[in-house]
Amino acid sequence: MDLAFTKEEQAFREEVRSFFRDNVPPDTRRKLVEGRHLSKDEMVTWWRILNKKGWGVSHWPTQYGGTGWTSVQHYIFNEELQSYPAPQPLAFGVSMVGPVIYTFGNEEQKKKYLPRIANVDDWWCQGFSEPGSGSDLASLKTKAERKGDKWIINGQKTWTTLAQHADMIFCLCRTDASAKKQMGISFIVFSMKSKGVTVRPIQTIDGGVEVNEVFFDDVEVPYENLIGEENKGWDYAKFLLGNERTGIARVGVSKERLRRIRDLAGKVESGGKPIIQDAAFREKLAACEIELKALELTQLRVVADEGKHGKGKPNPASSVLKIKGSEIQQTTTELLMEVIGPFAAPYDVHGDDGSNEAMDWTAQIAPSYFNNRKVSIYGGSNEIQRNIIAKAVLGL
Amino acid sequence: MDFDLNEEQRLLKDSIDGLLTDSYDFESRKKYMKEKGGWSKAVWGKLAEQGLLGLPFAEADGGFGGGGVETMIVMEALGKALVLEPYLATVVIGGGFLRHAGSDAQKAAHVPGIIDGSKTLAFAQLEKNSRYDLFDVATTAKKKGDGWIIDGEKFVVLNGENADTLVVTARTKGDRRDKTGIGVFLVPASAKGVTKKSYPTQDGLHAADITFTGVEVGSDAAIGNPDDSLALIERVVDEARVALCAEAVGLMDESLKTTVEYIKTRKQFGVAIGSFQSLQHRASDMFVAAEQARSMSMFATMAGDFEDARERSNAIAAAKAQIGKSLKFVGQQAIQLHGGIGMTMEAKIGHYFKRLTMIENSFGDTDYHQRRVADGGGLI
Is ipTM over 0.90? Predict the structure, then answer.
């Protein structure tokens, strides 16, 4: 057992850190620190900087543009990226549909889509959830019917994150209504600009518009846009969801936020002195830091295990990451609320596109608290995660 | 970065797990409890035979030169089997003082007896009002000739009844809560003026309240600097905390395993109660708590080698706080999921819960250590 990173790993951390320092646009960083949403341009600009450096799709196989890093290097990269902070690569392209295409797609599809995903020439969104199919995803009803060399798609998706920016969607569609529910689903990709696609924004409790409803009304899609085999979509979806195991803890994000809390708590007064001097607050902060340290170690155990034994069999500890990671993220937003106290109330009517410079630093703290309630719901709710532990780990 | 055990460590783990599987089922434990002092001399002899009592001592002192990871392996196994024998008091704490600060003569006098199993030690530190502050010492050691005269009262001294030698913290200078002027003394349990009141503890171990009345010890009794040994005490107690973290991980593992087995077999409403989602989720949360504890136990073990003393004690405080939270949840829910049977002395789960609970109240509880982390400037 050894906790230390090697000299090479430490040098790598330095390299990553200094690249972020020199290349992340300052305004982008500031917005992330303040919990603001970024514009499409801001995100794409950064991702192209990252891709130019060769780090846009770091975990892909090298033949498709990946870096060939060790699992520890990936961990370091992610941690530095999250805690700098810089925008994370667009998960829908880089972590979700990309791996499905290079694993199950044909050569033509790989050539057509992968480079465009890496450079975010196409912005991808995810068509999984439906109004009646949340945790019970396999009950989905959106239908794709084969007509000659085309699919005709009808139905509705929801919670489609940033669909307002999207050029492409990867979609789970029912292609065999007679099969058992997991068996009749196919994985189909198509343009969001297709005729019959309608995007309707959903405003969330933080006031922002991150998610959307997407309607399909006789959308015509070329047959060759099917990825892999017909009716095998469920397998690809499971592969996709199991692909990102260690990033989900978002340890770096929480670290950055805890640093901000400590910083603000040294400035904001309560009882005539900075809140950080209040013993009860300080202990609450320490409690959160301890939980995060434990999670970081749990994540390192998973990372070290993957590095040694490959990604084949997931370490049982990996199921801890989503539950604890989301709980801690939520706690950090609660602590921020506690720090700003009554100044949580003012509502920022300008939103993210307003004149940021003039806005008070407290403006996004309450929205960020509201927004972060999502992290224990998405990506398989924490209740679903508990089902998984009970079944897969405890054998219940 | 590596969280795996090396080949030798794996062998060590196999050997102690094997020994305890053979000699420490729950029924045998009940018999050991009834022996004099409340633990088994025969099992202690087996631990000595396998070299486990000499594990952390330097080879030059007749030991095996094991480090923190080796102690973690042993303590986890002892926890898993709910072992009564005084490994913590004798090897980890008593041995810790000798390893870190014992003179050659002191080591020669005490270490061989520890290693061969013929002698055990006890740590007489807690006082009526000291609670978790190691520097809060009212017991005095007054200079007399080359030696000292010790006067004071110590409480809940684990293995105090059986120990051959007591390791006593006493003040040579200053006032009760001064951080200097504290020494550590080796006192024979048979010395004149030592009186003991022994009793079983809540978790089935044995302890004693010990009064020192004009106890005379020689010049060779002080370990380290008799006027300034707080740093030494903190170092050894930190190692004891790390050991308790590992023991607690073993206890939690076994508690979770026992609970999951129980809810798989216990039937109500015609089905195993483990098929109910509310119980499944509780068990999953127990698993999460136990894994977080395991991570911090490993962290604390490796932190034992940190060069920076502040960083080291901060890390260990964080670990003890996390383990405290986890053990309370795992222990309480293990009883809850067992239902009525969990309330009985007959079932083993209650005994695990009791040991876990006593660990929380040993050498600083969750609040105490959380405060240490908070006052130390945090962890991030």
Answer: yes
